[in-house]
């Protein structure tokens, strides 16, 4: 803001006008104090013009450097985002393959168990039948030698008796033959089952080896993806800091100020939670160490977002699709860069005026700028717009002081950080370090 003010001052001074502006640097203070005065000598006017020209050139270069840095960050984030999406796609494919292999392994293990039962059952049947055949052969060898067969047959009293005896011998021989054939069949099936089980076990070991390899590959990819995520998180806040800091919708808001009934807006008691979602990322820092200036409440796309308190919508930005991803810079019309579809609520809670920032809404859901709302009213719906890799609502809370909602609305300059700073520099403007305007930890305000 200082740089912007100095550029404006420089431009004004170049036109021969002066304006009182505060500055921290000793040289700036000297010149701004002198050049803000009236009744300057011609020499002083020339000196002020020289200073303004020099300072304007310096600040123009600084702004150019900031824009270049922003482009660099955007380029890096876009690259990182694509890398993470690639890792995620590979992990998803491998996870599907792992699930398929796991199912195949379970089927093979079930089949092997079934084959083991069949083999055990056949071995028992074979043992029983073999014992029966062996006993039958032993008895045959003991009692049915050739001569004994002849004696048995020739001992028939008549032809009819002879036929019955011949049939009886045939039945015995046929029984032995069938038993032997059954024994052979069972033994052949047993060998086939054992061969199949050996093949299934070999295939099972291959599947298990393949499964472990894919699991290791997923683990490696997740490590790489996490490193990319850390790099993204470390630059995300700086991207927003270099982005749109002043809303394009300020003029529209100022035009409708006169139609707002501020007298109908009473102070609320306590902060109303946005919805029943759960806290994912906390405020100030990501787990990786990157700056994160708000809390993320996870909920499904389309879930209503409730107003934290009675108030008026200072700014509303829409126009981003629900296809957000890491590095996506969409900020709707008049919103902060990467914030997707967003709403800024000016509210008074327990006698203190706050601004509440809600990001990443679904398209078409943010309520319009200038809308007067009550605590709990729907102000939008959860989405995945802008710099968002999953459906959630990013919420920031700014403490503005005890001035009324109307007074603040009339004096607001369109700063979407409400004088509490951007990026890593905003961490020096938390309410535990300074007074209003300052940043409140949303978890504390909302009770998460």
Automatic annotation (TrEMBL):
<dbReference type="InterPro" id="IPR016047">
    <property type="entry name" value="M23ase_b-sheet_dom"/>
</dbReference>
<feature type="domain" description="Peptidoglycan hydrolase PcsB coiled-coil">
    <location>
        <begin position="119"/>
        <end position="192"/>
    </location>
</feature>
<feature type="coiled-coil region">
    <location>
        <begin position="56"/>
        <end position="139"/>
    </location>
</feature>
<protein>
    <submittedName>
        <fullName>Peptidoglycan DD-metalloendopeptidase family protein</fullName>
    </submittedName>
</protein>
<feature type="domain" description="M23ase beta-sheet core">
    <location>
        <begin position="291"/>
        <end position="401"/>
    </location>
</feature>
<dbReference type="InterPro" id="IPR050570">
    <property type="entry name" value="Cell_wall_metabolism_enzyme"/>
</dbReference>
<dbReference type="GO" id="GO:0004222">
    <property type="term" value="F:metalloendopeptidase activity"/>
</dbReference>
<dbReference type="InterPro" id="IPR011055">
    <property type="entry name" value="Dup_hybrid_motif"/>
</dbReference>
<dbReference type="InterPro" id="IPR057309">
    <property type="entry name" value="PcsB_CC"/>
</dbReference>
<keyword id="KW-0175">Coiled coil</keyword>
<feature type="coiled-coil region">
    <location>
        <begin position="173"/>
        <end position="221"/>
    </location>
</feature>
<keyword id="KW-0732">Signal</keyword>
<dbReference type="Pfam" id="PF24568">
    <property type="entry name" value="CC_PcsB"/>
</dbReference>
<feature type="signal peptide">
    <location>
        <begin position="1"/>
        <end position="23"/>
    </location>
</feature>
<dbReference type="Pfam" id="PF01551">
    <property type="entry name" value="Peptidase_M23"/>
</dbReference>
